[in-house]
Design brief:
globular; HIT family, subunit A; 140 residues; 5-stranded antiparallel sheet; homodimer; 3 helices; alpha+beta
């Protein structure tokens, strides 16, 4: 795994949360939704078919764990999550990654998907600290 | 599993392909994209966290298998798939389900997501037969 390099696209749009067994977990820098991105540490590969079956099982467990952390972020920010959305697209950023997004009927895109909708909203500094703390605690 | 009932939303928008180990696999009735929907046969539950870990591992394997079938549909229709998109949303249809969609840079929504984009396009009868045959053969 030593030749894994996180794509610059993630460095510019997210903040580190935790190194899980398979994936790097990062907070998407978009205050509109509690949102975690998981990037499996593999050198190349764009599709889940490029992972081994064992790593696919680890990935869906990490997606489940990230879902709990997304709910923790929403709760900490006073906007409890009603539904999780999971997406693996990669049309723009080819490095394999999974989005785990907390949704509410009053959010900026409900009931449509979040990807490609409008512009990311910056977190206020205190809210960012709250979100990072809640997510890291949940992911421990 | 005897109390599993497929949501009417799927009956109206897709055609049966195969009963896999965990899920019903169905062809989305939208000729714009080769697209399979997997619905795990469980009585209730909206999130992957409502599945057991063993069933989650089965689900991601079935998503992988469905990805191969989506590629088979694209190839049979002369529009090879360049990227798979996987999504579990459920904002509109609550019964847990996974979308596996074949994407191309010349498709109707690239590089954005497909969900909620425009209106479904009906398959021409011959293309529908081709798609169903290719998918069922791949899923066998």
């Amino acid at each position: 795994m030593s030749d894994f390099i996180l794509s610059r696209a993630f460095l510019e749009t997210s903040a580190p949360l935790a190194s899980l067994g398979l994936s790097e977990a990062r907070l998407q820098a978009d205050a509109r939704w509690p949102w975690i991105v998981l990037i499996p540490r593999m050198a190349k590969g764009r599709e889940i078919a490029d992972l081994s079956a064992a790593d696919r099982a680890r990935l869906i467990e990490e997606i489940t764990v990230a879902g709990r952390a997304v709910r923790a972020i929403g709760a900490a920010l006073g906007r409890p999550v009603e539904k999780l959305n999971v997406g693996l697209l990669g049309n723009i950023t080819p490095q394999l990654h999974a989005h785990v997004v907390g949704r509410r009927p009053d959010d900026a895109a409900w009931p449509g998907p979040v990807w490609g909708v409008g512009e990311a909203a910056a977190y206020a500094p205190e809210a960012l600290e709250t979100a990072l703390r809640a997510a890291r605690q949940s992911l421990q």
